[in-house]
Amino acid sequence: MSEEICCGLKVGQKVPDFEMDTFEPSKGDFGKFSLKKAKKAGKWTILFFYPADFTFV
């Protein structure tokens, strides 16, 4: 298995641009997050992935 597939990013590497569907509980609605748009807007972003208790499956 190649290191690129198995090991993800390493400290110091840049995250590739991506877009993902999101759910905003306070609004009760779905949306999209784009890293490229967040960077362009100058927003700080923390990427944290956690399969929450009520994650849609």
Please outline the helices and strands.
Elements: H1 3-6, E1 19-24, E2 29-34, H2 35-40
Antiparallel strand pairs: 1-2
Q: Give the overall silhouette.
A: globular
| Low-pLDDT regions | none
How are strands sequenced across the largest beta sheet?
Answer: 1-2
Main beta-sheet strand count, sense and barrel state: 2 strands, antiparallel
Q: How many whole angstroms does the radius of gyration measure?
A: 14 Å
**C-alpha end-to-end distance:** 28 Å
**Would you report the number of β strands?**
2
**In percent, how much strand structure appears in the residues?**
15-25%
Q: Give me the strand/helix succession.
A: HEEH
Assign the structural class, choosing from mainly alpha, mainly beta, alpha/beta, alpha+beta, or little secondary structure: alpha+beta
Helix % is: 10-25%
Core attributes:
single chain; 57 residues; alpha+beta; two-stranded antiparallel ribbon; 21% strand
Short description:
Helices cover 18% and strands 21% of the residues. The protein has 2 helices and 2 strands.
